[in-house]
Amino acid sequence: MIPLFVFLLLSFSFNNKLLAGQKTTIFIICLFFWWFLESFRWESGTDFYNYYNNFDGLRVSHLRTDRFELGYNLLVLFCRDYLHFTYYIFNSLYYGVIFVLYFFSVKKVTQNPVLFLFIFFCFSVGLMGSTRQLMAVSIMFFATIYFLEKKKIWFILCIILASFFHRTIIICLVFVLLNNNIRYRYWLYIIAFAFITQISGLNTFIMGKAILILPEAFSQRFSSYLSEPVSESINLKIYLFGIFRRLLPIILLFIYKDKLNKLVENNMLRYILNILFFSLFAYIILSFSFTFIISRISIYFNIFEAVFYTWLLYIFIQEKKYMYVVALISFFLLLCVKYIMFYPNLFLPYKTIFFTL
Fold this sequence. Notes:
The protein has 357 residues and is mostly helical. The chain folds into three domains: 143 residues, no CATH class; 44 residues, no CATH class; 140 residues, no CATH class. It is 74% helix and 0% strand. The chain is globular, with a radius of gyration of 20 Å.
């Protein structure tokens, strides 16, 4: 089912005849397919039984927020106890909200929304079933597209709202600053600082103190991530690949900056570049000692990486640079397989309440 969805996204992304007249219709069909994959899973995706048991066992008298955030738990209680929804009705409506937010956001920033879905799915397939975090991502992305430029207060309020579904989204408050013009040399200084603190071990001290600055509801959650076993740490080979993965779009953006400026607004391009730099900085400073944290917050950067690659592939297609297109698509597929193969039993075969495929 998952390989089939990847194949359909890829096929629709480059079918110019279909996209010319039915772009919105195909986009809706693909969103609907993804919505189905998420809504009716059975023992597929991450944390299935954690969410299933939480929905069944949550009680007002024992409302805990150390595992699942308050916003998500209150929504579960309201839908289950007052609207009398089953788990799957709740799940389908919940993911319906997520994909409606994607529908309005993606159309506004990309020329080929189906291609965006293909790239973003390859980047995020390993998080299938991360119900709370996916809601937080959709709210953040919607807020970025509609509010960040001229309504920053609304953007901040949306991030606070999103934090009631996943606390790690609080890192995206930094995006308010990334909307400004930041000189490249400052980013080089920041990246150099990340390397120095990582090599010296100062990153553990700095991040430990930085977490304590957060309100208790956030600091406790982040601190719990620090207690993850050392076995979860990455090795040097994966670390270097991760740096390459985050450095590649930065390099490509500089190479094709003039052409990208003709395609998209300069302020949006500047914003994406700042996020790419921040993603690289976060990966360098948090990997090894804080692998669990970087694995949770990377999706907040990946969705903008998908936007950038959608723009870039649009240029390559227009210029008939098909070798570049094939190379990037191969890279995305490699990442898709990599994320699935971390825990293949969670994704293959794909199981639903209706069938297994």
